[in-house]
Design a protein that fits this description.
This protein is mainly α and 445 residues long. It is built from 17 helices and five strands. The chain has a three-stranded mixed beta sheet with strand order 3-2-4. 44% of the residues are buried.
Length: 445
């Protein structure tokens, strides 16, 4: 009788689709066959090698098998070789599968990178994806696959640009203007994405010294912050979340409550908004304090001191909300008696699956809760919420208002994310905070 146990490659592909792709309700092998025959998609050697590399890296963490990580790195190198060949062809370079392969390789760096060099490599993959989008031109946005890839990559590219304090490439702005012809521009996702692009450009120009007028900086920050508040003031039903109060596991549920989102996309969007608001209100506070110190002072009206307090309160609240999103990423869910549509449950007993490495065990399975326009099985929707969580926590630790207990919790939690979810870049960020931020509290230089 033939041996029916799955091969290592099959397990790697299964792990990838189970843990890194949303909106899929068919087995990974069936989905790969679907991708191979779908008119909007093509599974080439570069994408398949990238998928195997990420799947093996994740599976090695679950199985505690370092040998699998060696195989993952071999697949990574194979994917890079296949990509280099594809990029030499004008036809292959424009394919969705080539762009997706570059994006998946960026995930690999997030999962396995334990040094500052991994952050550089991650940014390089995103820059490569940006260059490919320029080659692909406006016609890439005529398909759902192309629009989905554009949205996911530009969101990650904006994060990279914010970290490097550089502007988004001009062709991204041009492509986004063209994208408006195909989608509802009143959609919450579109509006949030627009603020992200605008803020990335504004932030880079402030940091580079292109914009120096304090009054203009303050006005623009307040405008963007108001827009974000307005966008998320009335979220659609599928983007709402619940608050669960509990006194259990205080090392993880730090604030005595945690959030439960209906799906990973919702958690990603809310935390993306919160990180932008943290950065905006940090700038607002710094501008006000700088203006107060001028002689004569620049901001003398009462409304400016009120704004300083309001921005400080916003920093505390957004930081607390990011912290409250952590337990679900690490497996906390609602008890079976809870109604996931309620906005506030009171005290509930959390449920925490014990299997480590299952990156999305705390979120709803398959296509449940994912917005209809994103729930197509034609192309994969990569889950990036947990990859972005370490950066959100890092920002919490870098705020001017962070306390030493919160900072120590953030550092400890980043290391826990590395162990439980296999996101090794979290260690890099934990080390940054421990060696650059923590000494300001301990007095150690």
């Amino acid at each position: 009788m033939p041996h029916l146990a799955p091969t290592i490659d099959e397990r790697a592909v299964n792990f990838f689709f189970s843990n890194h792709v949303a909106g899929i309700d068919v087995p990974s092998r069936g989905f790969i066959e679907h991708m191979q025959t779908h008119p909007d998609y093509e599974l080439g050697d570069n994408l398949l090698s990238s998928i195997k590399a990420v799947g093996l890296a994740g599976f090695s963490n679950v199985a505690k098998a370092p040998a699998l990580l060696v195989e993952a790195k071999k697949q990574y190198l194979s994917a890079v070789r296949h990509l280099n060949v594809a990029l030499q062809s004008p036809v292959e370079a424009k394919k969705d599968s080539t762009l997706m392969a570059v994006m998946v390789l960026g995930i690999f760096e997030t999962l396995v990178g334990r040094s500052e060099n991994s952050l550089i490599a991650w940014a390089a993959h995103l820059n490569g994806a940006s260059a490919l989008m320029k080659i692909r031109g406006p016609e890439q946005l005529s398909t759902l696959a192309g629009r989905r890839l554009f949205g996911q990559i530009t969101a990650s590219l904006a994060t990279s640009c914010l970290q490097q304090e550089i502007e988004m490439p001009e062709h991204i702005h041009e492509l986004r203007r063209h994208l408006g012809k195909f989608i509802d521009t009143n959609n919450l996702i579109w509006r949030n994405h627009q603020v992200l692009i605008d803020f990335t450009t504004f932030f880079a120009r402030v940091k580079s010294g292109k914009i120096t007028n304090l009054q203009f900086i303050l006005s623009r920050c307040l405008e963007l912050d108001k827009e974000l508040t307005l966008i998320f003031s009335r979220p659609s039903h599928d983007l709402t979340y619940s608050t669960v109060y509990t006194d259990q596991d205080p090392e993880l549920v730090y604030t005595g409550y945690y959030h439960v989102y209906q799906h990973a996309l919702s958690a990603m969007m809310w935390n993306g908004m919160r990180t932008m608001r943290i950065m905006l209100n940090e700038i607002i506070r710094n501008v006000l304090l700088q203006g107060f110190s001028l002689k004569p002072p620049l901001f003398v009206e009462r409304m400016y001191t009120d704004q300083l307090q309001k921005s400080t309160d916003t920093l505390y609240q957004t930081s607390s909300d990011i912290i409250a999103s952590v337990p679900q990423h690490l497996g906390y869910t609602l008890g079976s008696d809870a109604d996931s549509h309620d906005s506030n449950f009171g005290s509930r007993e959390p449920t925490l699956p014990r299997g480590q490495g299952q990156m999305w065990s705390g979120f709803m399975d398959s296509r449940s809760g994912i917005p209809e326009d994103l729930a197509s099985t034609s192309v994969p929707l990569l889950r990036t919420s947990s990859y972005q969580l370490p950066w959100a926590l890092f920002l919490v630790g870098m705020t001017d208002i962070v306390t030493e207990p919160v900072l120590r919790w953030v550092i400890k939690t980043l290391r826990r994310i590395s162990q439980c979810l296999g996101i090794q870049q979290a260690i890099v960020l934990a080390d940054r905070l421990e060696y650059t931020r923590l000494p300001s509290f301990t007095g150690i230089k």
